[in-house]
Amino acid sequence: MLTSETQIRVRYAETDMMGFVYHAHYLPWFEIGRTELFKQVGISYKELEAQGFRLPVLEVSVKYLKPAYYDDLITVKTTLIEKPLLRFNLTYEIKRTDELLTTGSSMHAFIDKEGRPVRPPQWAADLISKALKET
User: Fold this and answer.
1) Model confidence at 135: pLDDT above 80
2) What is the per-residue pLDDT for 52?
3) CA gap 112, 115 in Å, rounded
4) Average pLDDT in the 97-108 region?
5) Domain coordinates of the chain in residue numbers?
6) Architecture of domain 2-134 in CATH?
7) Model's pTM, two decimal places?
8) Residue 10 contacts by C-beta under 8 Å, 6 or more apart in sequence?
9) Which residues lie closer than 8 Å to 95 by C-beta, 6 or more apart?
């Protein structure tokens, strides 16, 4: 299991008229967590894309437990449980201090520029394997 934690300060523009973070803003936070997890093991989305790989979202789910508010400092915990093959799953927790606000998950696939499913590049698979073994 590979885990990354990223802190984000809630911006005013992310809230709605009730003062809550608007529900759609949680998905970009998941994306931030996902890209930071990959960076943590030495994989850059930019480099993957330069090599012709894409990682589209196939499924996403979000469960809202408690609202986040303007100026909250939240932590996005992103977890990859197993080595990606063609597809991979991530789970997310968003917390304010120790208070769990939101949980979620996403499924992604590796595809080439033409949209065909492919295996991840060997160098990326090796970095993920190494990180999974170290945890």
Assistant:
1) no
2) 95
3) 5
4) 97
5) 2-134
6) Roll (3.10)
7) 0.93
8) 21, 68, 69, 70, 71, 72, 73, 74
9) 74, 75, 77, 101
CA-nearest of 108, 120, 124 to 43 is 124
Distance separating alpha carbons of residues 46 and 85, to the nearest angstrom: 20
Q: Return the structure tokens found at 38.
A: 């990959």
Residue pair 118/111 in contact (Cβ under 8 Å)? The answer is yes
- Residue 98 annotated to the active site: no
Q: How many CB atoms lie within 10 A of CB 92?
A: 23
Per-residue pLDDT of 65-84, as tens digits, reads 999 999 999 999 999 988 88
Write the DSSP string, 18-78: TSBBPGGGHHHHHHHHHHHHHHHTT--HHHHHHTT-B--EEEEEEEE-S--BTT-EEEEEE
Looking only at Cα atoms, what is the longest distance across the chain?
47
Question: At which residue do the structure tokens 């170290």 appear?
Answer: 134
* CA-CA-CA-CA torsion sign (30, 24, 45, 104): positive
Catalytic residue among 16, 72, 98, 126: 16
Of 84 and 63, the structure prediction assigns the larger pLDDT to 63
- Rg of the chain (C-alpha set): 16
